[in-house]
Specification:
Length: about 400
């Protein structure tokens, strides 16, 4: 049954792609022929708009679409049917042959019902094409995520330029698992309205391979139990910092901003570091096949990224994969694949940066590589023995869990 459904889905996808491709090819071929048949017609869009006496935007979109070679891209960039018909009529008035004009009109007649049947609207139709064209899909996703970012900034009254988590995973000093150090930051954090209390950092101190919670420490290996023990990287953070408080709920530790303060126009940078022993498993077990590092943006951010540094003796020959999940009422995932129905289908990739910290620089966070090296120094681990992976997302979805999973090797 599973194979049957998969095959049916593939056939349907190919059918949709073929139908859009046929129409796109016809539109490109006939419209190119019509414009080429106009005596003394200019080829540049702005000049063509004056020559045909049509809207400049219409001319720009039309010329841009028919210059493309991919039929799907032609359909994606093509103006609406009404605008195309306006351009065809103007071309006919400037001397394009009746036969070529009729062929172009027939192509438009095929285009219009296809949009209505497959998408219901032009926006939905373009989204379908975006799923078939990765570069187009990436552009559509970024545009929509930027719109969501702008809306949430206005509604929530705060934003950050960049937020990140870097997780360093090392063979355990005691036991057969792995210890981890976490370095997290908010860069350019701004409050646009009177501030309310809100969480800025959280760490789940539990491992699915063990019962109960792990202990959480700052990078100096001191327990994090009071507000005075907050794992803040003071040498890199803004001075003075806003009032912060420590909260614990079940097996998680939270750092939150205090509320009831007037907005500060100056951006704030906050960096935190923590150490958690025995937080990851090294090998698969009957009830544990994957380990993961995740980050869930809790505020509108222009960019978020997750870096994972894995020691050379940990998870050898294992390549990670990234998925995004809705959290909502069900909360963050505690197992890498426990809720496939909450997965968000978006183009996000995980990239291998190489070994050590020489290639982890980023324009998103000033002095980021130097700060990460300081984390390595504080925990006493050799950075050159770690391979680094990164997932970077422009305008990440609010409260969507970015999850980087590693399939655990079997014990030898």
């Amino acid at each position: 049954m599973h194979n049957h459904l998969s095959d049916a889905g593939t056939i349907q996808a190919h059918s949709t792609e073929a139908r859009i491709g046929d129409v796109g090819a016809a539109l490109g071929k006939t419209l190119r022929a019509v414009l080429a048949d106009i005596p003394d017609a200019p080829t540049r869009a702005v000049e063509l708009s004056i020559f045909l006496d049509i809207d400049k935007t219409l001319a720009v979109r039309l010329v841009g679409a028919i210059k493309k070679q991919d039929p799907l891209a032609i359909c994606h960039g093509m103006p609406g049917p009404r605008g195309v018909r306006t351009a065809i009529a103007a071309a006919a008035g400037k001397g394009a042959s009746a036969k070529l004009v009729e062929q172009a009109e027939q192509a438009v007649k095929r285009f219009e019902p296809l949009v209505r049947e497959l998408g219901g609207s032009r926006t939905a139709f373009n989204t379908i094409i975006g799923g078939l064209l990765p570069d187009v899909r990436e552009r559509i996703e970024r545009t929509n995520k930027k719109a969501a970012f702008d809306a949430m900034c206005n509604l929530l009254g705060h934003q950050v330029d960049a937020s990140f988590v870097a997780c360093i995973i090392q063979p355990a000093e005691k036991g057969d698992g792995c210890d981890s150090a976490c370095f997290a930051g908010k860069v350019g954090m701004r409050h646009l309205t009177p501030r309310v209390a809100r969480m800025i950092w959280a760490q789940r101190c539990a491992s699915p391979m063990r019962e109960g919670a792990c202990s959480s420490y700052n990078l100096e290996r001191e327990p994090v139990t009071r507000d005075e023990d907050l794992p803040i990287f003071h040498e890199f953070s803004t001075h003075p910092l806003p009032d912060l408080s420590l909260h614990k709920h079940r097996d998680s530790v939270y750092v939150a901003l205090a509320g009831d303060e007037t907005p500060d126009p100056e951006p704030t940078n906050i960096f935190l570091g923590s150490y958690t022993p025995n937080s990851f498993s090294t090998h698969a077990a009957d009830d544990l096949t994957h380990e993961f590092v995740s980050y869930t943006p809790a505020e509108p951010a222009k960019v978020s990224f997750v870096d994972v540094f894995v020691h050379e003796d940990v998870w050898k020959n294992v390549s990670p994969e990234v998925n995004l999940y809705r959290t909502g009422a069900r909360g963050n995932l505690t197992d890498a694949f426990e809720r496939p129905f909450d997965r968000i289908d978006m183009i996000e990739t995980v990239r291998l940066l190489g070994k050590g910290t020489d290639r982890i620089h980023t324009n998103d966070v000033e002095n980021y590589a130097a700060m990460v090296r300081t984390v390595f120094e504080k925990v006493g681990w050799e950075s050159e023995r770690f391979r680094a992976y990164r997932v970077r997302i422009d305008y990440p979805l609010l409260n969507a869990q970015i999850l980087i999973s590693f399939e655990l090797p079997k014990a030898q």
